Amino acid sequence: MTISAYRERRAGRVPGVLWCSTHAGGAATILPDGCMDIIWTGESLMVAGPDTVAASYLSAGPHRMVGLRFDPGVAPSVLGERADALRDSRIDLSAVWGDRRTRSWLDRMSLSDDPAGALVDMCAEALADVPEWVTPTVAMLRDGVDVADAARAAGMSPRTFQRQVNQRIGYGPKVFQRISRLTDALPDLRAGLSLSDVAHRRGYADYPHMHREFKALTGESPADLRGTSP
């Protein structure tokens, strides 16, 4: 699928990124990023769960989409649903909330002259408190802090920490670290850094290690993804 335009910015009232894209139609590959989205397709609202591997998306024709990509661990406080229950899924919002509540959001989106702003407003209104441990934990895991150390910092036993991260982010801390390392490496690849330099900079043992991780998570090699669009 050809993306003819893509824009994103911080959502402001909700911890996440607001994005808009225009597609010419066809197939696209969505890479795992540790996040969850609510997406307005122009006709429906869809929830994209946290991906463990690359996902495929097929569009029959040109269309525009607006989405809010929540920071890791935030979406359950908007949706009222565990992240791991939505892992590797693309489902209609009504499957989470039922038809009545979803219809109120659909009506508001359809009538708005600013669907992106309406989506942010509704998510802000729905947002419940995010547990205090979530943001520092996400930062520590992204920085490569040992999982046991991150659990201690959060004041949890290793077993409780594993369960809480799984429920909030959608998978365990070690999987989240693998995916975060991949997403951090992508801008380096697209900036033209050498493959070995990217591997060293992002904490892979060597380039073969990075190659194996990319193939496992995306089905593509680091070299193949150098020119992938957002």
TrEMBL record:
Pfam families given in the database record: DUF6597, HTH_18
InterPro entries recorded: AraC_XylS_family_regulators (IPR050204), DUF6597 (IPR046532), Homeodomain-like_sf (IPR009057), HTH_AraC (IPR018060)
Keyword Transport: no
PROSITE patterns noted in UniProt: HTH_ARAC_FAMILY_2
Location of the HTH araC/xylS-type domain: 128-228
NADP found in the keyword field: no
Example of a GO MF term: sequence-specific DNA binding
Keywords: DNA-binding, Transcription, Transcription regulation
PANTHER family given in the database record: HTH-TYPE TRANSCRIPTIONAL ACTIVATOR RHAS-RELATED
Protein known as: AraC family transcriptional regulator
Organism this protein belongs to: Gordonia asplenii
